[in-house]
Design goal:
- The structure holds 3 protein chains of 3 kinds.
- Chain A is mainly α.
- Chain A has 19 helices and 2 strands.
- In chain A, a hairpin with a 4-residue loop joins β1 and β2.
- In chain A, α4 runs antiparallel to α5, α10 packs antiparallel against α13 and α16 packs parallel to α18.
- The longest helix of chain A has 34 residues.
- Chain A is globular and about 70 Å long.
- Chain A starts with a helix and ends with a helix.
- Chain B is mainly α.
- Chain B has one domain.
- Chain B is 78% helix and 0% strand.
- Chain B has 9 helices and no strands.
- Chain B starts with a helix and ends in a 13-residue tail after the last helix.
- Chain C is mainly alpha-helical.
- Chain C has one domain.
- In chain C, 70% of the residues lie in helices and 0% in strands.
- In chain C, α5 packs parallel to α12.
- The chains are: A mainly alpha, B mainly alpha, C mainly alpha.
- At the A-B interface, α5, α6, α8 and α9 of A face α5, α7, α8 and α9 of B.
- Chain C: It comes from Streptomyces smaragdinus.
- Chain C: It is a multi-pass membrane protein.
- Chain C: One of its GO terms (cellular component) is plasma membrane.
- Chain C: Keywords: Lyase, Membrane, Transmembrane, Transmembrane helix.
- Chain C: It is found in: Membrane.
Amino acid sequence: MASGTLTTLALTAPVAVPALLAAGFALAEWRAGGPPHRGAPPGRPAPADWLGLLTPAAILAGAGRLAAEVHGTEGTFAHGRLLRADALTVWLLLTVGAVAALALAATPAHLAAERDAGRADARTGRRYHVLVQAFLAAMCLAVLAANLGVLWVAIEATTIVTAFLVGHRRTRNSVEAAWKYVVICSAGIALALLGIVLLYFAARQAGMSEALALDWPALAAHADRLDPAVTRLAIVLIVLGFGAKAGLVPLHAWLPDAHSQAPAPVSALMSGVLLAVSFTALLRCRTIADAALGPGFTRAVLLAVALLTLALAAALLLAQRDYKRMLAYSSMEHMSLIALGAAVGTPLALRASLLHIAGHGLAKTVAFCAAGRILQQEGTSRIAEVRGLLARSPALAAGFGMAVAALAGLPPFSLFASELGIVRAGFSAGLGWAVVPALVLVLVAFAGLGTRSAGMLLGDPGDRPTVRLGAAAGAPLLAGLAACAALGLAAGPLDGLLSDAAAVLTGS
Amino acid sequence: MTEALYTQLLDLACGAFLLAAVVVLWLRELTVVVRVLAVQGVALAAIPLLIGWYEDEAALLGISAGLALLRGGLLPYLLNRALTGPRDSEHRETRPLVNVAASLLTAALLTLLAYAVTRPLVALEATPATRALPVGFAVVLIGFFVLVTRRRAPSQVVGFLLLDNGITAIAFLAASGVPVIVELGVSFDVLLAVLVLHILTTRMRAAFGGTDLDELRELHD
Amino acid sequence: MSALGYAAIAAQAGAVVVGAPLLTGWMRQVRARLEGRAGAGTAQPWRDLRKLLRKEPITAAGTGPAFRVAPALLVASTLVVAALIPLVSTATPISGHADAILVVGLLALGTVTLALAGLDTGTAFGGMGSSREMTISALVEPTILLAVFALSIPAGSTNLAAIISGAAEDPARLASPAGLLATAALAVAVLAETGRIPVDNPSTHLELTMVHEAMVLEYAGPDLALVELGAQMRLTVLLGLQASLFVPWGIATAGDSWGSLLLALAVLAVKVAALGALLAAAEVFWAKLRLFRVPELLAGSFLLALLAVTASYFLGTGGGIL
């Protein structure tokens, strides 16, 4: 009994805690009303800004509890069949929790710097917290939802909530980015809804009850009874739809704009985990489609999407002039690698893809937080106007440089191990013809990322002032890099979980 | 209700639903377009009403009433609010990327495409409702087309709503609607998305002095 | 039976020839009354024709055979259509040949003849009018074909007599989406084909806008009378066809008596007069479209016709083709 309650609590907390915090911040905002006033003395983070860290704590605690629970089971449910956890859920919750911890730990320093620059006040700070917490609640719901319809609703909710975070500055650039973001993502993900509706139709035709026809475990168990022609149409729509939210072609155009305009911690959350969460939604649907169609069809679709995205991202990385956009295209590059691993589809490849999701989340969070700091310090996001960072603010430059090295796939960071895993799995599955061009493109992306970042970090600092990185801003960078390296050197206790999560997707 | 009458009425509702989408493509005056969208919302609400009546499912009648309120009333009202701009030229779709005659011919092709795409669906279960499925797909495709080719912020919202109406129609025609909790969530998300776009339109007017999307060209590589 | 059939053909052709100028006069009269004028009376077009026919035949210098044959060919082709299509009876000796595609072809023949005549004059107006007329009819012909095709799917035949008698037996066909869409498409196509507002304005000689009038600007005397009569007959035939297709009641069928033939003739007159009055009333309230927007209207009606075809194929309640 007590164990059951605890499990329910562990499943509920990752959604409920951020939702309650969002409500709390909204209440505070409503009570405060009146003219905006400055919340904290200059240069010091406001105490309330640290409250947000309760959410990652709840997520990680819930994930820890569930990790023990789900090993060797089909998954545990709570609130009827609304919330559900299996090994894949736990792995994603851990990633979301870790990335959220880093991003929310970097938030107080970010907001303090914004307040000092006069771009924010206590009021915008509270609104920021409301939206970020609601964003995390929606994302955790998307991870935990058992019903594909609820999963869709949660992912669309992340779009709506983050729209105002992307457009928070109300400048022409912000409004443009927010408009494109909402229109492209909402329209794209509507295709995924259409795909899910078609799956529901096929499931009802296969004799499943109304309550279970959208339920993922039930669908996965009975997927072989679905009509192949309808399922084929559905999975193409789902790949397009969730692919739009995961930054894959052809509906990727919102990504660089939105990621470059959002506040740095939000960019980190969107790039680090939101892309991965919607890609995992795609993977769950793919498990169903593979059971109905055999692995060939979705593999071909995913391979095409992955290679096209990779080629586009690599080409645009080479010619990039804006470092936040550079990081955004790097996200597309990594999502396409994850998609490549998913296309290969063997347990080894899926393990590598899932590891890549976690490693990319951590490294990209550090990179975006550092880039946000550079933007606040230099006042420009153009690569050509930032020079000699290593000489002027060594700690910040080192953090950014290490994060870019991790994103470029250098050891000891975990991205090295996972990229190697994807390539090896690709060759052993006989997909060498796809892996070789992908490798070439990754090298091109590496060259683009490397030369642009080197230009920013090295060179003559000129007469520009030296700036120190405070402990509040520096600690999250260090922690993220350490976690990413540790994950690469020894997955250790997470190894079993990773294998279980890959097994969930292969349906074995 | 006899099956023949049910089929007849369902076909009429679907016909009106598709025709409204075509008329949206035809018109330039945005205030009229919004009115046509309201008519489409009512035609959409008629579909679950007829299915619920024929199959004796009371829940569908309630959903139909909710849909009529949301799609036929609230969403068009919100869109109309977004059109209270100061200038006349703001209310007309003056120069779409594809001219009206060509868009109408494209709509004809899209309808044929919709019929081709839905063949496996109709083949799976040929009831009067599933036979009308191509109509839903055609509206989805036309909605996408409007979204891509129209250059005013409110017209893009219209395209998004066409897309969503089409998907809702498909859900009802194919499987008498998705479970209620999902339906509620989807409707709520659509409402919020339109609200967000409404606010962004206001901000766009403040930042760009208009709702012409061709002005949105500052972010590029 | 056979005598009855031939009588029906004669009645149709005669009614169209005699009735066409009266219909035009009636529409002008309705329009005049709605605009608060007294009007010239329903028989005025007949008086105009009589006046023109008495004049000396004159042809413009430098015109060739195309210009000279056109009036007669226009009237003749329209007369054949009037005899063919089931306006009064669906069971005439030649109703087996009343194929929709043939009828559309005959109407197109008249259009092309006039366009060639307009080109033959070698004047700027004639050429301009012909080019505009061809642009419009390039969009109109496929629309009419598709609309009639949509109606022929439930009947399983493109024979107009079969379509109309089928619709008279099963009125549900007309209230289906396919039937309604086809009606709308055909109505727009008829407006364009007969040169009415909003596509063309039959009562203006404004050079910027005229289409039909520009083509026939060089005609005078008896030739002009024939051209006018031909245009009026086309309007009558097309309105009559539309009335038969969508309000098919009252038409005499196989096995009917002389009485029902007379009744059918009266019903036809009432239906066409009602349609004409409706059209005239609508023209009071409509403005002519700019020429550049005409293709939009016609593309729209083409789309409606195509939707009608697809709808009758796939929704196909009583179809049975699939």
